[in-house]
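[INFO] parsing input record for Exodeoxyribonuclease 7 small subunit
[DEBUG] input buffer:
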Amino acid sequence: MPRKTTKKQPDFETALAELEGLVETLEQGDISLEESLKLFERGVTLTRSCQQALQQAEQKVQILMDKDGVPEAFDSDE
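[DEBUG] output buffer:
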């Protein structure tokens, strides 16, 4: 039995663009139920990827900002 290969996750912009295309295709309603389910499954995967990328970006921003919203590198009070 062949092993599943892990596909590299697309970057945020690519994933979002693909997700938008999937939504448009699903909204048209011109595809079979089976194909709709495949597209929906792909959409869920892309959504999770986008959410993860956004969470990572938010964490980076929080690390760079202090409690007052001033970048730590420019905080001269300490």
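[INFO] Residues 33-64 form the longest helix (32 residues).
[INFO] shutting down worker
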